[in-house]
Amino acid sequence: MRYVIIRDDDTNALTPVSCLERLYRPFLERGMPVNLATIPEVALDTTLPNGKPEGFLAYRNGTKNRTVPIAANTKLVGYLRENDRFQIVQHGLRHDYLEFDGVDHASVSDWLEEGTSLLLEAGFSRPETFVAPYDKLSRAALRETVRRFQVVSSGWYELRRVPLSWWPPYAWKKVRATPHWRIGRTLLLSHPGCLLSSFRPYEKILETIRTQIDQQQLTVLVTHWWEYFREQKPDEAFINLLHETADYLASRRDITVISFSDLVNGEVPLN
After folding, report:
1. 29 φ, ψ to 5°?
2. Residue 191 scores a pLDDT above 90
């Protein structure tokens, strides 16, 4: 059996319910969980190096606040709680640019605690999985995150960012050429990049996904809801491609779509 985790990044207080409903109803109707990496208190002034606002701020619509907590969008919170196939994953704190890169222990500890508290205040369950903004974790951030969460999902783990005491299991992971490894109770997952991306050639995406799934037991498929609605306009071709992915996953009897929580609960036997 092969396992797939759908990880959608950047759900926040500005995310319209209609976007998530349009994208993921075909998954939910098939009983497939969708893991939403959710920003606890989104920063509205986050910009990319080129000075452009981050894509997940497209629905800011004149909001003036510096930050907005997820609980402020009661319609979104209610929708997510009613549809329990959506699994809430903690995605940083405010999603400032490279938020958890180069940060010290004290700041990381405070930010992680604050982010968790904000998700709990919104009525969500305590998150068991953490996703760093931009998949970037300093050595201090990685250590503090592993202390608090049972799963960390990231793109890759650089040796210079790995605590020295973790080097032996890290080396063993490299020898085995496995994308996933464990430190204590915490499972550290790697993903093969954002395969479901509007910045990739559409005609090659599904074949790339098929190839990736066939190469390993567990694949984390990463995407971003806002890429399907750039400048608040639906990209019909890209949305159709996402739904074709749902069709494909459902057609394979040897594939099960799971949540990060399934890993935490020991319901998935990983080699």
Report:
1. -65, -25
2. yes
- Predicted TM-score of the model (pTM): 0.96
Tokens of 249: 């996953």
Instruction: State the alpha helices, DSSP H only, in 8-135.
Output: 17-29, 74-82, 105-121
Query: How far, in Å, CA of 136 to CA of 98, rounded?
Result: 7
d(CA 249, CA 255): 7
20 with 79: CB under 8 angstroms?
yes
**CA dihedral sign, ordered 124, 220, 7, 193:** positive
Q: Which of 60, 47, 129, 128 is nearest to 95 (CA)?
A: 47
Domains of the chain in start order, with CATH, are: 7-191+260-264 (3.20.20)
Instruction: Go through the chain and tell me how many residues it has.
Output: 271
Q: How many CB atoms lie within 10 A of CB 144?
A: 25
CB atoms within 10 A of CB 217: 15
Work out the mean pLDDT of the chain and round it to a whole number.
95
pLDDT at 271 over 70: no
Q: Give the position of tokens 């919104």.
A: 122
pLDDT at 267 over 80: no
Q: Which two tokens stand for residue 183?
A: 């430190």
> Nearest CA to 247 among 219, 220, 209?
209
Give dist(CA 52, CA 62) in Å, integer.
16
Residue 253 CB neighbour total at 10 angstroms: 7
Both tokens assigned to 235: 């990209």
Burial class of 231 by CB neighbour count within 10 A (0 to 12, 13 to 18, 19+): exposed
